[in-house]
Amino acid sequence: MKIVTSGVEYVTSGVPAGTLITVGTDFGDIQKPIEKIKPGDLLKTYDMDGYDGGHHELNTPTYTKIRKVGKN
Predict the structure, then answer these.
(1) Hey, which of 61, 63, 65, 70 has its CA 20 to 30 A from 27?
(2) SS3 state of residue 12
């Protein structure tokens, strides 16, 4: 499966069906199976560049709208 956001492509080949992906909603974050991700969902990601692994409160999430979902 290939997930495309604004200019960023997340290739998820080899990820088994049923793998949970965190998306943002009006009611908070939820987890959906990867095969149920659709355009318009808000993908929750973390920028791991410069993250030291010891201060999780400094690693804030980013929400990116999914533009396209397709097969690899």
Answers:
(1) 70
(2) coil
